[in-house]
Amino acid sequence: MEKIDINEILKDALFMDIDIEQPEPIITIDNKVVATMQNFICISGLPKSRKTTFVNYLIGAGLSGNCIFNMKVNINKNDKIILVDTEQSIFDFSKQIKLLKYAIKSQKLPDNFSAYLFRKYEPDTILNSIYILISEQRPKILVIDNLTELVINPNDMIESKKVIQFLKKITAEFNLVVICLLHLAKTNLQTLGNLGSYTDRGAQSVLKVTLDKETQTSTLEPQLMRSDSFFNPITIYFNTDTKQYEQTTGLTEKPQKSVINDLTDTDHYNRLGVVFRDIKELTYSELVENIKQVYGVGTNKVKQVIIPYLVGNKFLTANKGIYKFN
């Protein structure tokens, strides 16, 4: 067993009361700080909700230096990004890489990007391999898709805590950002098991991807932002004509006719009066749930159509994730 020097730990852990400069943001979405160095973030969603697609474009933003779907990654052109995939077969993963190359407009992957497939290996082997990888290659960003495969049982408290402590250790020791993907449980739509609970508590930002089966759009939205206010949800869809993913404006023809155009300004004021009954302010998630009940529509229509319309037409004002009825 490794001998622990408590005096060294206390010396390392002692807080020094000195001025510390605010770290430069590494990942921003809609100009909101999502990740800074020595932190990890979590992107969760149900299987096939397009979590991996959003992460692919985040990687593309880092490799190209471009802002993609309002997502920007602030690293130097030679800074390395490593992707660790724990689920996909080599054929499925190759399709993902084709999308990445399309996003960065290149026929081959750049030298500062590498990917590793660990589908057939046990959790401890994957964790040890990750540690060796980052200690040798020193990436600025590590992507783990999917965090669930780093444990035998996501409900096991000891296993789950071990993984989160591993993430805290490597982000601090190697001064990098880790992007974790994690499944949601279908029963309660919460991150899976104790692993999910520990991840949510330890992450700098927790983001969620939801798929609207009716419109075949996927929306990325913030659930927790420790370093900034919430960004506006981002919705994408696959354009079958252009054969690429595109960002929606949030105002498709069907929702406009059924939700917006049929209501007058008076109708909106009356409904918002019910939404804000006996309360002056609502968080974004509270606003979504209340509007769903009053307007009688689903979550994605509220986020993609109604809230943007109400804010854009001055029915609502938003400040740091808090909404007020004008």
What does this structure look like?
There is one protein chain. With 326 residues, the chain is α/β, with parallel strands linked by helices. It has ten helices and 15 strands. The chain has helices at residues 6-13, 51-64, 90-103, 123-137, 157-174, 193-202, 253-260, 265-275, 284-295, 299-312; strands spanning 25-29, 32-36, 39-45, 71-73, 81-85, 113-117, 141-145, 177-183, 205-212, 217-225, 234-239, 244-247, 281-283, 316-319, 322-325. The strands form three sheets. A nine-stranded mixed β-sheet has the order 6-5-7-8-3-9-10-11-12, sandwiched between helices. A three-stranded antiparallel β-sheet has the order 2-1-4. It has a three-stranded antiparallel β-sheet with strand order 13-15-14. A hairpin with a 4-residue loop joins strand 9 and strand 10 (217-225). The longest helix is centred in the middle third of the chain and has 18 residues, at 157-174.
Q: What are the key terms here?
A:
326 residues; alpha/beta; Rossmann fold; Arc Repressor Mutant, subunit A; 2 domains; nine-stranded mixed sheet; three-stranded antiparallel sheet; 10 helices; globular
Brief summary of the model shown:
The protein has 326 residues and is α/β, with parallel strands linked by helices. It has helices spanning 6-13, 51-64, 90-103, 123-137, 157-174, 193-202, 253-260, 265-275, 284-295, 299-312, and strands at 25-29, 32-36, 39-45, 71-73, 81-85, 113-117, 141-145, 177-183, 205-212, 217-225, 234-239, 244-247, 281-283, 316-319, 322-325.
- Tally of helical runs: 10
Give the class from helix and strand content and strand pairing: alpha/beta
Rg computed from alpha carbons, rounded to a whole number of angstroms: 21 Å
Question: What is the general shape?
Answer: globular
Number of strands: 15
Element order: H for helix, E for strand: HEEEHEEHEHEHEHEEEEHHEHHEE
What is the architecture of the largest domain at the second tier of CATH? 3-Layer(aba) Sandwich
- Distance separating the two termini: 63 Å
Average pLDDT metric: 89
Question: Which strands sit side by side, in order, in the main sheet?
Answer: 6-5-7-8-3-9-10-11-12
The number of distinct structural domains comes to 2
| Name of the CATH first level of the largest domain | Alpha Beta
- How much of the sequence lies in strands comes to 15-25%
**Any low-confidence stretches, pLDDT <50, length ≥5?**
251-258
Let me know the largest β-sheet: 9 strands, mixed
Question: In the CATH hierarchy, what is the superfamily of the largest domain?
Answer: P-loop containing nucleotide triphosphate hydrolases
* Helix share, percent: 25-40%
CATH topology of the largest domain: Rossmann fold
